[in-house]
């Protein structure tokens, strides 16, 4: 079955507005399904996870949900008992307006940590919205969940009659651990809960969990999928492929829009003893500030990749004499580079997407991870974000 | 016994010169003792450790050495068999000139990775230097081992008749693991090898191994101490205290001169279950790019400290409800901050040294670590270093 990028899934409606939480851009998004959905979610492992995460985790235990609420520009994290009460009040307000039980609503929140919601503004803004729900403009929804993002992130696929849409936000504090920032998938596929869960988790693991912008794990990471069944069944493998494609597309969009990023870095490590080893080495490279700045400056200082491999402590020891390092098709280690090679390397490091390929030559496992370079822009944005 | 900062230890002489390895600044330092020294060294755990590290580790196995050679501006790492042969040739040249056996010489090398020494220049530059050794100018020695350092790092203490000098270099690729960049200590104390080893390793563990600039572990980290005994014995506790003070002073000098740094960050985590937990949490905070940029911008975004604690996976789980976070004497969590508190916080974050204090309130252990903020300067320096 061929995959095409296409229209929106049946049966979803939305209310997207500005509540004035931080500025005048949209900061509140509700997307509801006409019928109950099979649903799954994975969330941050942060010990400081906020009430949005803990409540949503509970609400998804029965693999059922019918609406998603997102408040952006304020994470409602580290606010103690008042933060929990605020989150519950938002759910009750949405439940009252939509007629959906509060335990069938997923809530997510993103923005500054340690600041209370302007709850009066939220009460005022949500009053009567239940009558204003319209067909979902997913582009507007993707915009409504942004914080310092500069572009909305949206990806779609069609599998037969079934439609799949994914949206995501995230530009910093990105080293997802079991989930990512905020990403939501909507489909009208009919799919059984266990199949959805297994496909969704494996997809997130190989896509969002392989992305790192700055090694900082957000307190609010949430990835949720809703499948309302209105378009009927499709082969599971086709659905899984489409989901993988949509997630991969969103990951690249996040890496590209990462705070201050000018280039995407893709690192593949192969012939490792196991997947954990391959991923650990790949992450060490993609997260190294010295590798990131060298790529930003297109400085052919490939020795920093050797340095990053060298600092990895893995259970099965890496033998530096067996390691081969390539940038695209240029082998830089253990060879001696000619001046022509160095110039070639500089060219590769000037591309929008820089691919580093490391072979450990001690096993069969491989992993690919994504990240971005580190520029003055990251400092500029993060030295001044909260104020 | 009182500690004073003072003169140089007896019995050491030096040759410091420019061999033209990268530019016209000094790049070659030999310091030799008139008599054999009790010696110890700790080195990088990097899997890509170069021949300087592997040879020096071997040469110090008998706890004896009589000279240290440092080549700066080229790390001689990831150069394969030719790199090993080059390092051995340097040792042979120094042995021939000084009359010290090659296995009693420690070698260290720092600079770009993956580029061969200009061995002809080294041969020419070392010819006849044995006749040019003079009293050690430790300030010049500290300059001679610099790469992108902007100031030499030197600290001294006198313990009775005994003199102790430490020098260090390092501004980036700093997350020492069992050792640090390059740091050398010289003393005329008479001290038994086992005592020296135990005091030296415990000192390095609590000072250099608690320093992180950018989470990147160098392939060349080396910390070495030579004690030639010419000034006789002093109480071990006094010697240990002096060594601790000298090492701590060097660590602060490195943090202050770190690439692009404008402020030192000191993080203390106390009431943890054990030292490992305290250190892990403290390192997560001091290494967080978002905490570092907030401090650079003096942005009172303390929630990022909560985020950094939240991402720590430790064996004994941290309870976010028991955590207390302070900047100097201002408690920021779990309290609600007044506008006055926020202004106070902004003042604290504008100081040259910012102290973050976290209490986990689940045990008795504590750790203090040091780092620095992250500015455009780091990007500027590291986007352009090798070329």
From TrEMBL, chains A, B:
One GO molecular-function entry: L-glutamate N-acetyltransferase activity, acting on acetyl-L-ornithine as donor
UniProt EC number: 2.3.1.35, 2.3.1.1
Subcellular localization: Cytoplasm
Catalytic residues (UniProt): 180 (nucleophile)
Residues the UniProt record annotates as site (Involved in the stabilization of negative charge on the oxyanion by the formation of the oxyanion hole): 110-111
Residues that bind substrate: 147, 169, 180, 259, 382, 387
Family annotation (InterPro entries): Arg_biosynth_ArgJ (IPR002813), ArgJ-like_dom_sf (IPR016117), ArgJ_beta_C (IPR042195)
Pathway the protein takes part in: Amino-acid biosynthesis; L-arginine biosynthesis; N(2)-acetyl-L-ornithine from L-glutamate: step 1/4; Amino-acid biosynthesis; L-arginine biosynthesis; L-ornithine and N-acetyl-L-glutamate from L-glutamate and N(2)-acetyl-L-ornithine (cyclic): step 1/1
Site-annotated residues for Cleavage: 179-180
GO CC annotation terms, alphabetical: cytoplasm
Keywords: Acyltransferase, Amino-acid biosynthesis, Arginine biosynthesis, Autocatalytic cleavage, Cytoplasm, Multifunctional enzyme, Transferase
Family: Belongs to the ArgJ family.
Assembly and oligomerization: Heterotetramer of two alpha and two beta chains.
Function: Catalyzes two activities which are involved in the cyclic version of arginine biosynthesis: the synthesis of N-acetylglutamate from glutamate and acetyl-CoA as the acetyl donor, and of ornithine by transacetylation between N(2)-acetylornithine and glutamate.
Identification of the protein by name: Arginine biosynthesis bifunctional protein ArgJ
